[in-house]
Every structure is written in structure tokens, then in C-alpha cells.
Recover the amino acids of this structure.
């Protein structure tokens, strides 16, 4: 299967700990997105990369959150000093990324974070 | 907050009946996408609408984009148990960013 993959699928951590999630996009996709989804809501945009460049960060992304895509392939999302309010599903998506054309985003299975 | 409103939040349907879910944006969209998320799953892309007034069909699903490109609808005919899940619309306001609605969660009575 060459879809978007995410690791781990589930993460349980104690408040105050740091966590890191990984996303591997579809191989030829230039754009990579991170979203957060809480129960009963649609995915909320966090940040996006065009190749290795991080081009936008949502106001939802506090200073405790950092995302990287060092080689323009996989990406990591790190949350420092986790809080209970960080508990959510973290979704990664990727797209081909041709400017000016409809650009379908394909989602990975998500990482479900639970902060105790 | 989300700029795309979606109604209804819940839809309980008798198997075999039809239903429609609606999506509205306060601003003009460049395009709109629809996703389906099964319980415990992740959003799966269904379709993308780009042109004003566009209508697309996928078997029992009919998707429509409004003339002003501010609203969209998904109509499902002859609902089946396999239609269970949450349907999200996602509006694109610029080159890359999607704003998702809160979704319509569909349950089916056999």
C-alpha cells in the first residue's frame, strides 16, 4: 500500500511529557499537512509544508508544537510539555501540490493521542 | 474557528430512504471536497467540485456545488447500512488550505 502512513497509531502519555509523531506521505506528493481532530468535529488545519518549507502555521499551533519535514519526504510533529487539552486525533495528509490546480488531499490513518 | 458550516449534525435514516446534507461557506470557495469517515477511521476522499453549479454523481451519491460557489450538498438515495459514517465537506479558500465542516453523522435503521 502506497498511501499516507502515520506512526504510532495510538499514544498514551502523562501530562508534561514530550511526544513525537511521524508521517510518511505518498511518495510523489510535494505537499504535506497536519490536522487535529477532536470528537464531533472536522479536522482543523495545523500546518503545511511545500517540500521541506513550512509555509503556514495555524494559531492553534502553540509554541509547544513544532513540525519538521527535513528532506521534503517524511514529517514529524512534536508536542512538548503535553497538556490534557492536547488529547485528539492528529491527522496527516499529502497532495501533489501543483499550484493553481485542484489539489486533492489524501489522509493517513491518524495518531490518537491521549494525555493523562 | 471553522469557516464552513454543515447541517444537519446528525441524520438518522431508515434504510432505503433518501437524505441530504448541506454545506455553507461565508466566503466564495475555489473548490469544495467531500470526505467520508467511518467510525474509528480517517477521512477518505470522495469527490471534488470546482465549477459553479457543478453536479457529480457516484452511484447513489449526488454532489452539487452552488452557483455562487458558497454552498454545496450531498444527496444519498436509497440509503444502505454501508452509508453509515460521518460526511465532511471541506472548502478550499486559497491554494492549499481546507476548512472542514463539523460533519454530518449518519446512522441507518435497518
Amino acid at each position: 500500500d502506497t498511501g499516507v502512513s502515520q506512526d504510532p497509531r495510538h499514544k498514551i502519555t502523562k501530562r508534561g511529557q514530550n511526544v513525537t509523531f511521524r508521517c510518511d506521505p505518498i511518495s510523489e506528493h510535494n505537499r504535506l499537512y497536519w490536522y487535529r481532530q477532536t470528537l464531533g468535529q472536522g479536522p482543523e488545519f495545523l500546518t503545511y509544508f511545500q517540500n521541506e518549507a513550512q509555509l503556514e502555521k495555524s494559531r492553534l499551533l502553540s509554541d509547544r508544537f513544532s513540525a519538521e519535514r527535513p528532506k521534503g519526504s517524511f514529517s514529524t510533529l512534536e508536542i512538548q510539555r503535553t497538556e490534557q487539552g492536547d488529547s485528539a486525533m492528529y491527522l496527516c495528509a499529502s497532495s501533489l501540490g501543483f499550484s493553481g490546480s485542484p489539489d486533492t488531499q489524501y489522509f493517513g490513518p491518524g495518531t490518537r493521542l491521549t494525555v493523562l | 474557528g471553522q469557516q464552513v458550516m454543515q447541517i444537519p449534525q446528525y441524520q438518522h435514516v431508515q434504510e432505503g430512504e433518501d437524505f441530504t446534507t448541506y454545506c455553507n461557506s461565508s466566503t466564495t470557495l475555489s473548490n469544495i471536497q467531500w470526505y467520508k469517515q467511518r467510525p474509528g477511521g480517517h477521512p477518505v476522499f470522495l469527490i471534488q467540485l470546482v465549477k459553479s453549479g457543478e453536479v457529480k454523481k457516484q452511484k447513489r451519491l449526488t454532489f452539487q456545488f452552488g452557483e455562487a460557489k458558497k454552498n454545496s450538498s450531498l444527496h444519498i438515495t436509497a440509503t444502505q447500512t454501508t452509508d453509515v459514517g460521518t460526511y465532511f465537506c471541506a472548502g478550499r479558500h486559497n491554494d492549499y488550505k481546507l476548512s472542514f465542516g463539523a460533519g454530518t453523522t449518519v446512522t441507518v435503521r435497518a
Chain A touches chain B at residues 31, 33, 40-45, 48, 50, 55-56, 89, 91, 95, 97, 99-100, 102-110 (CB under 8 Å). Chain A has a mean pLDDT of 92.
